[in-house]
Amino acid sequence: MSVRSISHARTKGRGGSAAVYALAAAAAFLLLPFGRPGRPFLTIDPALRPWNLDAPWLWLLPVLALVAAAAALAPLPTLRRGNVLTFAGAGAFLVGTAWLLTTKTPFGMGALLSLCLLVVVVGYGLSLSGRVRADPFVASSILFTGLLVLLLVVYPLVTVLQAAVVVNGKFTLTKFLATLQTNRFILIENPFTPRSEGALVRYFALAGLALGLVWSLWRRQPALRVVLVTLASGLAGLVVGLMLFARGAVPSSLTLAVIAATFATLLGLGFALLGQRTRFRFVKASLGAFSVLPIITPPFILAFSMIFLLGRRGLLTFDILGISSNWIFGIPGVALAQILAFTPIAYMVIQGSVAALDAALEEASTTLGASQWHTFRTVTWPLLRPGLANAFLLTVIESFADFGNPLILGGDRNYLATEVFSAFAARFDQAEAAVYGVVLLFVVLLVFYAQARWLGRGSFVTVTGKPSRRAFTRLPGGLEAVLLVGFAVWAAVVVALYASIIYGSFVQLWGVNGTLTLKHWRDLTNAGVPVFLYTMRIAAISAVPAALLGFLIAYLVVRQEFWGRRLLEFGSMLSFATPGTVMGIAYILAFNTGPWLLTSSAVIIVLSFVFRNMPVAIRGGVAGFAQIDRSLEEASTMLGSSSFRTLRSVLVPLLIIPIVSGLIFAFVRAMTAISQVIFVVSPGNQLTTVLLLGWVEQGQTGRAAAMGTLLIVSMLVVILLLNLLTRRRGGITGEVVA
């Protein structure tokens, strides 16, 4: 008999707990206001108690809850009891939800508690009736997580799609098409230049068609293949032409993504090879700290520090080289900031592929007489394709989704991520912001699809289970020297940028008055520290449910079998794949009115953090569960433990490191987030990164440098504590990715 069958059998006859939950749902309905009058989340308004509402049919909720309680205690057959609990609980839940939706009244504490308790009642019913072959805890968890993902991930994205094509309550593509035709979106013919950019773009497209046709004919491809390759080459030529000659958000974002992804991937590959195959141990130690940088650093902090070092009055450009130029404000500056920020991410992705290589393959090649270069080109390089493709496409996604760097260094260029914010906050056009959000979301999901298709075509297995103790082939001397010089330059630039932030917090006015002062730190004590402490509190509050909910979803999708399991996994990871600016505008559109009103409160900030960082905990939990044999759970279940007790007493202690890692990671990412929360913050709920970005835009560089220093140092301390914890505790560690 399987574990699920045993667990299901032991749920038969259990009705007392279901009755308690049903009675509690009825009590919450009767004692607490079902709605609230406005935005304050914890408002208790007696006028919104059930007996003060003109809604007789709403009283079906407690009636059905009492029916469920009676059925749970009645001596009914298990199947019939489960059916009554399922339909009575679901009916009561739908009645309450329908009243909120039809009246558009913001939900109150009574609605929140009673509806949540009714979900548990339905979970008991599904378990007892056998519709979900698991105990009530698992059935209720499936319902809870599914509803949360539906409400807080899928529904906001649907509102963005709706806002792009529904204007003033009517479906229309006019606004969508009008936005796509604006110069901010794409501008091909520039009226202020003598040349015809449109003609140049067409020439590139025709050149691509010709090259594709010649190449496919030379390779003697089938007719259909010739057509497809020719069209793909023509499209590639068109894209290159647009990148070189067109303006607007699409060409700028595309150019930026290609530049940043190419250089970041190549640097990440070089550093990963260097870390594994160099003779110098200090380089390997330095690369360990190297991988921490993107976690502890706010997304735009390097752009801010580049102004100190490379700006018009920068230390390197003006004071040393005597150059006063605004070259960093535009694509060159944003690309450099993104390369510096995303190279560690590419390195961490490629490092796994490099570490998984089998040294025996390279040894076989050299034994057969191949040179180091030939072995690298014909053996090592092909096996690194999955890691390279993953790193490149991930960096493309990060570049498209990046908000802070283009906002600070973008210059006179438009970018997709910043146009979402500009349309919403500067031009006050929600429909236009939604259109940009839809385009950005489409581009990112298209890249994800391309990644899956690209990596799914071939097999790159190098780990077969057979032991291999052979040492890896050393890098060719010339290549190692180039990589060492490249890493030294990269490290020097990064250290200089971070040092410039620290130094900038102690001078009167960077580039004008270099007198040392503590003024910015004194100002920070009054203007910044309260916001910093508030942000820490919000981040800590959100980190706990993010880690626990992610762990629970990982448990459900890995250890349980139920209808919709893949949909739950996909929906849970969707918030991680969606750019932050898109999720930010989605939360504003979804939760700014109606029954789910949450804006201008700390609750919406917490929820945005929870569902933005939850996928990291899911991936860590999935990796951890893959290392634990199911026999441990089977033994616990056969000894009479429920799923909840098995999860709490057996699995959680074994997976404490992934849970803690997910919690710390969620905390750090909440402290450094900007793209999503800039939409949902309010005057009474200011966050550190939003305040820091505002100071940068206002020219208060000294105060911003002090806040940036405080943020980086504090996050570094948190990461070091995490490393200390994971070293001291043994056991299984899951994968936590940035």
Q: What does this entry look like structurally?
A:
The radius of gyration is 29 Å and the shape is globular. The chain has 33 helices and 4 strands. It has 3 domains: 1-133; 254-407 and 445-504, MetI-like fold (Orthogonal Bundle); 513-738, MetI-like (MetI-like fold, Orthogonal Bundle). It has helices spanning 3-11, 16-31, 60-73, 78-103, 109-129, 136-165, 174-180, 197-218, 223-245, 249-277, 281-290, 293-296, 301-310, 315-320, 331-355, 359-367, 372-383, 385-401, 404-409, 416-426, 430-455, 477-504, 519-527, 529-559, 565-577, 580-590, 602-625, 630-638, 643-654, 656-672, 677-680, 688-698, 701-728; strands at 166-167, 170-171, 507-509, 513-516. With 738 residues, it is mainly alpha-helical. The chain starts with a helix and ends in a 10-residue tail after the last helix.
Key descriptive features of the protein:
two-stranded antiparallel sheet; disordered C terminus; disordered N terminus; mainly alpha; 3 domains; MetI-like fold; 738 residues; 4 strands; 1% strand; 72% helix
Helix content: over 70%
Report the CATH C-level class of the largest domain: Mainly Alpha
* Name given to the CATH homologous superfamily of the largest domain: MetI-like
Specify the biggest β-sheet.
Answer: 2 strands, antiparallel
Structural class: mainly alpha
**Percent of residues in beta strands:** under 5%
State the shape. Answer: globular
Number of helices: 33
Radius of gyration: 29 Å
Mean pLDDT, rounded to whole units? 82
Q: Oligomerization state of this entry?
A: single chain
CATH topology of the largest domain: MetI-like fold
Total E-strand runs: 4
Number of domains: 3
In whole angstroms, the N-to-C terminal distance is: 41 Å
Report the CATH architecture of the largest domain: Orthogonal Bundle
Q: Biggest sheet, strands in spatial order?
A: 1-2
Q: Which segments are poorly predicted (pLDDT under 50) over 5 or more consecutive residues?
A: 1-13, 457-469, 730-738
